[in-house]
Amino acid sequence: MAPHVTLREVTDSDLPDFFRHMSDPESNRMAAFTAKDPTDRAAFDAHWVRIRASDAVTRTVLADGVVVGHAAVYGPAEEREVTYCIDRGYWGRGIATAALLALLELVPKRPLAARTAADNAGSIRVLEKCGFTVIGNDRGFANARGAEIDELLLILTR
Known about the structure:
The protein is an alpha+beta fold. The chain has helices at 15-22, 25-31, 41-53, 95-106, 121-129; strands at 5-9, 57-63, 66-74, 81-86, 112-117, 133-142, 147-156.
């Protein structure tokens, strides 16, 4: 049975969980485009101070009441993008899709963009299930892989 997924405002008590999710080596390899040093807690904390002070719509993702990640819409109005991070222990349960769909209801203005490593089949599937379509390719340096890799550019217009 799929877990019940909800979103709520980010609280200080969520940050240790986010740090654990975002510093997981396998999660970083899959996400590819990560912090230079995902184990640097001071950099992580500074990053979250900036996020929480910005106009980004950032929410904590809960599965059956447990903090399992976060999802956000961020960036300038004409270039808004989505992002999400789900604890690897919860992958493959539909949580990212449910969380992103809920976030898209909170942020109805379109278009919204997304980027993902071209080999991240799970993230591509989540984005496509939420209505995003591939509109192009790019290459970028992926800190988590220490190399330039292919990425897909996606857009949601509806």
